[in-house]
Amino acid sequence: MRQTKQLIAIIEREGDGYVALCPELDIASQGDTVEEARNNLVEALELFFETADPSEIEQRLHTEVFVTRLEVSIG
User: Fold this and answer.
1) Structural domains in the chain (count)
2) Which of 31, 42, 50, 66 could be bridged to 37 by S-S, CB 3.0 to 4.6 A?
3) 42 is in which domain, residue-wise?
């Protein structure tokens, strides 16, 4: 039986495309659109979970990741 896991994806424009990062596992992918970058990241994560040793998953998985907005003084 397949399990599902909810993970964070941070997607940002880079040049003419988009880069998608999963900070919990430090796995990234890219695409020409936001949706393509997202889908490629899902595929990369699924391949990682299919092939990685459980000890590698445990070692890489950050269970506490916080995404927030900061205000900083400039100049």
Assistant:
1) 1
2) 31
3) 1-75
pLDDT at 37: 98
Question: How close are the terminal C-alpha atoms of the chain, in Å?
Answer: 55
3-state class (DSSP) for residue 36: helix
* 24 vs 15: CA distance, rounded Å: 24
What Å distances lie between residue 49 and 14, 36, 44, CA to CA? Answer: 26, 20, 9
For tokens 């896991």, the residue is 5
Inter-residue contact 30 to 39 (CB < 8 Å): no
The pLDDT assigned to 69 comes to 94
Weakly modelled stretches of the chain, pLDDT under 70: none
